[in-house]
């Protein structure tokens, strides 16, 4: 009898402990105070998308679950220009966007996407991680947007479906897709091509059907969209190194207390460092994959690249006459 009583007592203690444990676990769960949207137009495995997920993970972790950020990849919330417009009235909370459409709203950003501005990747990050980069992050007053951190997007190069681009004369008359950006249109015209502004998700079919002869983008974009299937000539000229930005809507920002703003900025910076590492790896593997398919890759010799540079020099005066001092400072960082 004593044995049965003891067994029942132990059984009861186990049940109480289990119930107590479940109750304790439930009290740890926190209902989020905010659930925010994040717009990203790239695929799930793309470095910028993975950076966005890292950002969301860090914010949720460091706020103890009070702030949750839901990442919407593959352009489900609209193209970049549409997303920027939505952010200006709080329709979208966070996003990663390219400077090209963003410069339509913050013209000073045109400086950072001028063709052939940098000597290479190291030069660009020296600029963006320093005082010049900070000044740009703080130049969004009046835009209804708040800049958080820079993301890498590599160097943009030309690719075509009709012929390889080996010299400046090859550009003449070619229909080249560009982002919806006045500056990008101007660059194509300066090089002798016809600019065709077009949404990113329309490029594959436009190349396939001959609506355009070519486009320009970095290695990961060229590979991940399979544009190499319909445009087998890739010319490395690195005409622009356009960084990208993580942004938050001003309307969303104003809802947050200073403590949460500081956490979000810190997480944005940490996710930027994470994304840059992913970008370097992805750029290398994308190039290897494309070359393995048999695509023709052209590397412009220095003297021919200098001719491309010379063709676009007038753009600096046209688009950045007010910012000559900033351009001079950026150039000086590369010497």
Automatic annotation (TrEMBL):
InterPro entries: DctP_fam, TRAP_DctP, TRAP_DctP_sf. GO terms for cellular component: outer membrane-bounded periplasmic space. Keywords: Receptor, Signal. Residues 1-17 form the signal peptide. It comes from the Bacteria. GO terms for molecular function: carbohydrate binding. One of its GO terms (biological process) is transmembrane transport. NCBIfam families: dctP, TRAP_S1. This is Tripartite ATP-independent transporter DctP family solute receptor. It comes from Hungatella effluvii.
């Amino acid at each position: 009898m004593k044995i049965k009583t003891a067994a029942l007592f132990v059984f009861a203690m186990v049940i109480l402990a289990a119930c107590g444990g479940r109750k304790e676990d439930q009290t740890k769960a926190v209902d989020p105070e905010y659930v925010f949207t994040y717009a990203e137009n790239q695929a799930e495995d793309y470095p910028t998308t993975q950076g966005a997920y890292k950002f969301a993970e860090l914010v949720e972790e460091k706020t103890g679950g009070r702030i949750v950020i839901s990442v919407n990849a593959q352009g489900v919330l609209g193209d970049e220009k549409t997303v920027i417009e939505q952010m200006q009235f709080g329709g979208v909370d966070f996003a990663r966007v390219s400077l090209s459409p963003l410069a339509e709203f913050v013209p000073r950003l045109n400086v950072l996407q001028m063709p052939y501005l940098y000597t290479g990747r190291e030069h660009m990050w020296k600029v963006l991680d320093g005082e010049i980069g900070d000044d740009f992050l703080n130049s969004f007053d009046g835009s209804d947007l708040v800049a958080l951190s820079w993301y890498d997007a590599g160097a943009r190069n030309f690719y075509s479906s009709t012929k390889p681009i080996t010299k400046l004369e090859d550009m003449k008359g070619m229909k080249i897709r560009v982002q919806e950006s006045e500056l990008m249109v101007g660059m194509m015209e300066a090089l002798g091509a016809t600019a065709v502004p077009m949404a990113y998700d329309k490029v594959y079919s436009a190349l396939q059907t001959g609506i355009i002869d070519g486009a320009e983008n970095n290695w990961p974009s060229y590979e991940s969209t399979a544009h190499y299937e319909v445009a087998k000539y890739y010319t490395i000229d690195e005409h622009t190194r356009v960084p990208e930005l993580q942004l938050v809507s001003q309307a969303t920002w104003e809802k947050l207390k200073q403590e949460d703003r500081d956490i979000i900025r810190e997480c944005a910076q940490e996710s930027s460092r994470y994304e840059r590492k992913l970008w370097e790896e992805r750029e290398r593997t994308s190039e290897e994959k494309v070359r393995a398919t048999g695509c023709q890759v052209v590397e412009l010799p220095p003297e021919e690249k200098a001719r491309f540079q010379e063709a676009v020099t007038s753009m600096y005066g046209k688009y950045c006459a007010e910012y000559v001092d900033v351009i001079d400072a950026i150039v000086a960082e590369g010497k």
